Amino acid sequence: MNQSGRWIRMFKSMHFRVLILLLLIGLVPVFLMKRGILNGFEEQTVSMRASMIRNQCSRLNADIIDAGYLTDGTSDVAVDKELTQIADLYSGRVILVNSLFKIIRDTYKLDEGKTVIARELIETFQGKDTDYYNAENDFIEVVCPITEDTTKNVVGAFIVSIPTTDIILARRNLSRSVLIMQVILVLLIIVVSFYFSRLLVRPFGKVTAMMNSGGTDFLTDDISMPDYTETELLSEAYNQMRHRLQAQEESRQMFVSNVSHELKTPMTSMKVLSDSLIQQAQVGEVPNELYQEFMVDIGEEIDRENKIITDLLNLVKMDRHSPDIHIEETNINDLIGLIIKRLRPIAAKRGIEIALESYKPIIAQVDQTKFTLAISNLVENGIKYNQENGWVHISLNVDNTYFFVKVQDSGIGIPEEDQGQIFERFYRVDKSHSREIGGTGLGLAITRQAVLMHHGAIRVYSREGEGTTFTVRIPLRYSEQEQAEI
Ligand code: ADP
User: Fold this and answer.
1) Ligand 1 mean position to 445 CA, how many Å?
2) For labeling, which of 195, 214, 231, 414 is most exposed (least CB within 10 Å)?
3) What's the rounded mean pLDDT across residues 366-375?
4) SS (H, E, C) 58-104
C-alpha cells in the first residue's frame, strides 16, 4: 500500500474517528474553561466590591441626612472624614451630589459646585441601584442613592469611582495558573483519549483476527465476540456464512465423488466385457454370437455413459445464476403436445396410456429447451416407474399470474421418507432398479433446476403402490428479478 493509501485508511478507521471524537469532547471544554473562570472571577470580584461600597454608603446615609449635609454650604467634619476614609480605602474618588445634580463634595476637590448629569445618576434618582465597570480604563463606578429617613425620597447620591488595578493583577495571576492547569489537562486528555479509543475498537480488531485465523479452513470452530452487540452480530453472521460455505463445500465434494462413481460404473462394465472377450480369444475361437452379445452390452454402457454426461451438462447449464436462458413467448399447450407425441411410442411399448387435459390455451414466457427438458423428465419418470398397462395424465391450468402443469401416474409411488430427497442429484429410491431402466438419478434435479430458473415451484405428492403426482407452477411472465420460492 502506498503512502496516500495508508493515510486514507487511517482517516477512515474507526479508531481514528473515535479518537477525534474523544479529543473534541475532552479538549473543547478545557479551552472554554479558561475564559469562563477568568470572567467569572472578574465579575464576582467587581460585584463584591460594588456591594461593599454600597454598604458603606448606606451606612453614611443617615449621618448625611442628619447633618443636613446636602444643603448648600453645610459641612460636617465627621461626614467629611468618613467620605475621605472611603476614598482612601479604595484609593478612589467619592463625589456627593444633591437632588439638583450639583456636586456638594468631591474628595479630589476638583469639581465641587459643578453640575453633573449622567445616565447612572438619573437612574439612581429614579430609584435604581447602578454601577458601571469600565474594564478598558480599569475602574468601577458605583452610584448609590441617599434617601430621606421618613419619605424614602432620593435626595442625593454618592458617585464612587475606584480603580481596579488589583483585580486586573489578580486576574493575570489566575490566568497563569489556569494555563498551567490547561496544559496538564490537555496532556491527560490526549493520553486518556488514545487509551480509550484503542480500548473501544479492540473487539473489532479481535473479531477480524479471529476471522483471518480461520482462513479457508471450514473445520475451524465458530467464533464468538460478545463484547458489543455489533461484534456479536458480526460473529453470528460470519458463523452462518461459514456454515453455508461448509455445506456447499460438502455438497460439492459429494457431487464430485458421485460423478466419478457414476462415470466409472459403465467404464468398469466395458472393461470387464472387453477383458473377457480378449481372454476367450486367447483360449480359442470366440463364437460370433458371443461377440455380438458383448458388443451390444458395450454399446449399452456407452449409451449410459453418454446419458450421464448429457444430464450432467444439462445440470451445469441450468445453474440458477447462469445467464444462459433464452426466454420466448410460447404456446405451452403445443409444446406439451409435442413432448407427449415424442414419448407416446416409448409408453406404448409397456401398454401405458398418456393423456393430456388442457382447459385453456396458455401463452407464457419460457426457455423452450429447458422447459421441455423439465416436463419430459417428469413424463419419462411417469412411464419408467409405472406398471404395465398403467397411465400417465398431464393436465394444464392457468390463472392470472401462473400456469400449472400436473403430471400424474399410476406407478409404483415414492416412499414418504424418500420424497424429500428425490430432487437431489444422483438420488434414487431403488438404485439397481433405476439403473436397470436407464436412470441416472439426475432427472428430477434437472427438472427442479429448470423450474427454479423460471422462478417457479415444484411439488410432489405420492403414495407407495398407488402413484405419484408432480405439480409445477411457473409465472406467465418471466422476470429477471428473483421471486420467492414456494
Ligand atoms: P432417475 O434417472 O433415477 O429416474 P430422477 O432424478 O428422475 O432419477 O428420479 C429420482 C428417483 O425418484 C428415481 O430414481 C425414482 O426412484 C424416484 N422417482 C422419480 N419419479 C418417480 C415416479 N413418477 N414414480 C416413482 N418414483 C419416481
Assistant:
1) 10
2) 195
3) 94
4) HHHHHHHHHCCCCCCCCCCHHHHHHHHHHHHHCCCEEEEEECCCEEE
Helix (H) or strand (E) holding 278: helix 229-283
Q: Cell 458601571 belongs to which residue?
A: 132
Where are the chain's structural domains?
A: 9-171, 229-317, 323-475
- Quick one: which atom of ligand 1 is closest to the CA of 444? 6
162 touches 90 (CB < 8 A): yes
Task: For residue 322, give every residue at least 6 positions away whose Cβ sits within 8 Å of its Cβ, in sequence order, or none.
Answer: 453
* CATH fit for domain 323-475, picks 3.10.310.70, 3.30.470.20, 3.40.50.300, 3.30.565.10: 3.30.565.10
Query: CATH: 2.40.10.10, 2.40.50.100, 1.10.287.130, 3.30.70.360. Which one for 229-317?
Result: 1.10.287.130
C-alpha cell at 85: 476614609
Q: Residue range 437-441: average pLDDT?
A: 80
Asked if pLDDT for residue 138 goes beyond 70, the answer is: yes
* Phi-psi map region of 55: left, alpha, beta (phi>0 left; psi -120 to 50 alpha): alpha
Domain 9-171 has CATH 3.40.50.720: no
Q: Which triple of cell numbers denotes residue 190?
A: 490526549
Ligand 1 centroid to residue 367 C-alpha, Å: 24
Dist. CA 387 → ligand 1 center (Å): 14
Q: Give how far Cα 208 sits from Cα of 14, 186, 233, Å.
A: 13, 33, 13
pLDDT tens for each residue of 258-295: 889 888 988 999 999 999 888 888 888 878 888 899 99
Ligand 1 lined by 414 (C-beta under 6 Å) = yes
Please count the other Cβ atoms lying within 10 Å of the Cβ belonging to residue 92.
20
Q: What pLDDT digit, counting tens, does each position of 301-316 carry?
A: 999 899 999 988 888 8
Give the integer Cα–Cα distance in Å for 76 and 68. 9
Q: Work out the pLDDT band at 151, boundaries 50, 70, 90.
A: confident
pLDDT at 485: 43
Segment 19-67, tens digit of pLDDT? 999 999 999 999 998 889 999 998 999 999 989 998 988 888 888 888 8
